[in-house]
User: Which sequence fits this backbone?
């Protein structure tokens, strides 16, 4: 959920969206690779051109306990993208 003031209509079996702080919306950068689609002699597509999407984030265990989670709970954190990160 990215907007501060927005109404969402949920189905009865759906959970409410989770956002810890409405003024601090997390941002994640993605690396996407695409290419030109390939076709054979009959015009059938042999390769769609979609290679992959990779997020720049890491999963770490929380160091301390808080009112929202216990110690050791896995958290997803974004990574600052630098030259070294791109080369990994």
Assistant:
């Amino acid at each position: 959920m990215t907007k501060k003031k927005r109404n969402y209509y949920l189905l009865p079996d759906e959970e409410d969206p989770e956002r810890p702080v409405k003024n601090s919306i997390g941002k994640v950068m993605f690396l996407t690779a695409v290419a030109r689609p390939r076709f054979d002699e009959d015009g059938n597509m042999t390769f769609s051109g979609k290679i992959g999407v990779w997020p720049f984030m890491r999963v770490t265990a929380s160091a301390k306990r808080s009112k929202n989670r216990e110690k050791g709970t896995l958290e997803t954190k974004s990574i600052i993208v630098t030259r070294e990160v791109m080369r990994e």
